[in-house]
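Retro notes - structure team

What went well: the batch runner handled both jobs without manual restarts.
What didn't: labels got mixed up in the shared folder, which is why I'm recording both outputs here explicitly, each with its sequence directly above its tokens.

Job 1
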Amino acid sequence: MTTLADPVPGGRPGDVERAAALAGELTGRGVHGVVLAYVDTAGIGRVKSIPTARLASAAAWGVGMSPVFDTFLANDAIVTTDVLGSPDGDLRLYPDLGQLVVLSGQPGWAWAPVDRITQEGEPHPGCARTFLRRIVTDAAGQHGITFKAAVEVEWTFAQAPTADGGFVPATTGPAYGATRQVELGDCTADLLAALAEQGIDVEQLHPEYAAGQFEVSVGALDPVAAADRSVLVRQTIRAVARRHGFAVSFAPAVVAQGVGNGGHIHLSAWRDGVNLHSGGERRYGMTAEAESFTAGVLARLPALTAVTAPSPVSYLRLKPSQWAGVFTAWGRETRETALRVITGTAGHREQAANLEVKPVDLAANPYLALGCLIAAGLDGLTSYAALPDEITGDPARLGAEEAAARGVRRLPVSLDEAVAAFREDAPLRAALGPVLADAVIAVRQGELAAVQGLDDEQLAAAYRWTY
């Protein structure tokens, strides 16, 4: 279970004793080290690892790591804000023992997400996991609302990268085809086994559209745990694939043309165990609150893309008529709108109804993405925002006048446009706080500067093996 309390020097109540017991158990299972993981502003997973015997010490006093990584770029260059990017200072990484998992795909290792605090014991304002936990906690306290969330994970299996970083898909069978499943069946069977051993409930695993591409969908959890799970699933996929001799890429666009890798987010709001997206009197069973929540997300989508599609290469994926959801529109089971309202099958709707956010990829920090989506939705809920008419079919077919009349706009076509929209969205920046909001802007601008002058092929190559 996710730990909702901030860490403190000396350890959260009971954590040191719990960590000591866990260390003994892990050692008995042949686990020699624990990976301490978080995700930076650029969406890169960063880690430190400790010997298993040091787990109790980490629970009490944390593990040191520089705050400079909050302004690292995907290529490891460093940008700065007024408070971040300096070589000065230190943070303490505190493992969430409730999310510690023995890694089936990496024998000898366990894994745990971390929260970061300052040496003075204060929550680090640049910690994305702490930000999401605050958003979730405030929603429960102020509105009595909890959330369930899940992140779809799409990736591409490839042969080992060529000397020039090129890409050769591991299989080229038809989209969603049986051929591809057979050709990679040994690897994907081992993946399913590893995920099951790690306690991850998989709903489906299937070949996707692009060459070598697969998708795994997992069960929904509270948002912090769902973000943790997204990071863990990717670590597991990479480890299992490597043991079978494959490389994997989670990049939004592995090649310049064609369908890229998404990271769609599923999100539902609940109160007192009741799903607000089902059983209501509004459209498709939504309650008034669920409609306003959806309207809040819809209204802020242009600014949200700076967080959900945060890389220059994200915009090679965000193209019309490729199910990427690039228009400010919603529809029931409409895969071309940015927001897909899922009602679920009759008889299962009370559990299954949710909102799918499509313009999201796996370059996004999942903690930032979920926190910002929830903040946008709550803004709509508290302001009783009205949800416009739904769109059916492909919004790209609408003429300019009809699209304008129906409020259908193209989402930003570049990261530069997304950053401009983010700058203008004061409520979204306020939800993040000035430190995180400034880090988002600085890192996105740094990414743009790093790839200035590259054509689409060069852009895809620059990020192909980064994510």
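Job 2
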Amino acid sequence: MTHPRSGSWLTLGACLLAVTMQMIDVTAVTVALPTIARDLDASGTGQVWIPTAYLLAFACALLTMARAGEVFGRRTVFVTGTVLFAVTSVLCAYAPTVELLVLARVLQGLAGAAMSAQTVAIVTAAYSGTRRTTAFALYGGTAGLTGLAGPSIGAALLHLDILGTGWRALFLINIPISAAAVVLGHRFVAPGSEQVPAGHGGRFDAVGAALWSIGALLIVCPVMISSSALAAMPAVALGLTTLAGFVVWERRRRAAGAHAMVNIGVFGVRGFSVGCAVSALVYGTFTGFVLTMSVTLQSGLSESASTVAAITVPFALGAVLASAAAPISFRHWDCRVVVAGAGAMGLALLVLGVTTEYLDSAGFPWWAVVPLGVLGAGLGSVIAPLQSTIVAGVAPHAIGSASGIMPTVQQVGSAVGTAVTGAVYFNLLPAEPVAADYLTSQRAVLFGLAATMGLAAAVAAALPRGDRESVDRNSPMVSQGAP
């Protein structure tokens, strides 16, 4: 049955509100971590858990929630997830301890996955032709710009201190946005906008969901709680083994004709598997950089959140300009644009690492404008063409699985990047650190992130070339976790 308002641009409006909340709760909260730590007496590990708990819960639940939309209806799961996102945001805002805040963030991540997992399918069903192209351009632009503007949004809310709420406003702002998304979703999202008719999507792959979630948890959690990388290795190895079991299970189910959470066969496409690896490295680097730089400037150098937001401006401008130029550069230089972008990010991080000591000066570090701009331009050069490159060789019948795997890989990359970078950063700090200690730790992290982007550039060199003609510009492959 066709919804009387199906295809209205207000359908897209509901999805844009959802992706806006999701991105704010990834990047804006990071700026407030030092303030939250002082208020709730959180340790370094506690600070890292606040963003990581959300990212990890989101990533682990995304595939399962996409399946829930197929079974129960996209609109039903979208509206329910959005309502729960508002409720869990209130729990985050009024958590009295860091432990309860982390728990609330886990619940918020699950709700966010239920909400966000439906948006791509909703837009795909609501629009076609040039309207779909326009819708996904707006969707991707909103995700990217909101992610880049997140630190500035967080800093502004901290500065305004609305009704004395302080950092809690970063979560409370979700309430009016959620209310608007629920109203629009209920009225303008068609009941039949799911890929499988509501209630006829088959049974859940409970074993596959459990194997995936446990495997991801076993990889990230030990890194967070272990005192050394060596101590975390057994659990990480077990996590990788569990994920290997997930792959075997999904292949068997698919061979037997049963429902599988994902089509594992898409990883046999070189462009897809290599592109996912590059995407995970890039997203992990971005979140790790924002986290540690925020802590260094605020906790280490006593700068305000506004300074943290200010340093993201040249970064954001570089990313926007490079993203706008990416279609033209991609037509001329193909996947070499991705390699160059990752290399530029690595070079910029290396320069920032070499010049870290100059951060210890009053006010905005104007000398950092150039490397920060190059860092953003590199990110834009990678993300914009990478989305299309990844799915260029994927068969049409596997696009659905690819669309679920890509944002999951991005969120897992962000979670692992945050966890590993945060663990290294705080483990390098002494019990009672001074400014110089923060700068030393930041320098080590920047060098590590630069090396990571060097690896990303090397991996990106394996992307198949000549795909630019086969890229489907109307593909519903849009990042749900664009930084």
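One thing worth noting from job 2: The two ends are 37 Å apart (CA to CA).
We'll revisit the folder naming next retro.
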